[in-house]
């Protein structure tokens, strides 16, 4: 077995020496940690690579160029970053990394989940990686606290769950945030067409309250970010998220992020706390990354008390299901309101629902745009503004179809007209390039 194979296949049950661990320990003996901490990340990596190259040359024998490069990268990744996961994090096509124990690593690429050859040398090495992640956010994971949500300094969201809750060993999930897309780019990708984009652009600029609904992995945050790009630049925007994913380009943006309790169980700041605080910040728009609890009622009340043009996302399987979901979430507030009162709040607050769907081929697109036309305490009634009509799925599972525009309810058309939006669905004006 060659050196490259030994580096890539080192196993805790093998008699082969763990070269990565060996040279990582040697490297740590040679460096000045105080000096290293004062360097920029790129300078830090370059310094370690030079020191390690010197160590390898001194040890001999001369290694093949490829073997030497792989070993240096693995050792430096292990010393500075997340070890064997660093190449996956550097791969821009990877949107999710799922580690199911030391031997099973999966990634999501282009909407499809696939297994990769990457493995950890041992369960201990996986635990070391997990500890490195949670320590950066002043958290710990052990039997007394076996579940942790955290965020890497580079922005990726991380979830960790370990035994005894995870029966087959520690599980690590890293969600990478895709680069922010403009609405015009989503049109080019086929997520919606020009007419639907023009319609939604008018709704955002016309200060309608828009709720984006969809299941896990349908691209709700990506779409929310794209829609928020159409908010006029002069408006004050407050964004509220569980983990900061949005990347708004406007000048006047205040970004708020919730905070979990510390190891003593204190210091928690919830989404609901932030929604309530945002009302005192004189926002023109409130953008909530996802409503998932009692903050839903606060968000609805904000929409009903002059904070028009707000945007939010919610987990739901259809546009109509989103209304029932909002109703359920609003009951999680400490205020015990009758269902009829909650229905009145939702009917008064929400103007448009955008439902996203992930196709059998992994593509994400807008399945439906609907206006909520029910009033007061009526049962929820939706009027379709745009629907995607798919063709029958063939053997290749490729999803094709067409976007169909439906007549707009007269009261909604008049609201947009009063806001200065003369909707012309065939014209692409107002879509960010």
From TrEMBL:
Coiled coil: none annotated. Pfam families: T2SSE. CDD domains: VirB11-like_ATPase. Residues 81-361 form the Bacterial type II secretion system protein E domain. SUPFAM superfamilies: P-loop containing nucleoside triphosphate hydrolases. Belongs to the GSP E family. This is CpaF family protein. It comes from Cellulomonas dongxiuzhuiae.
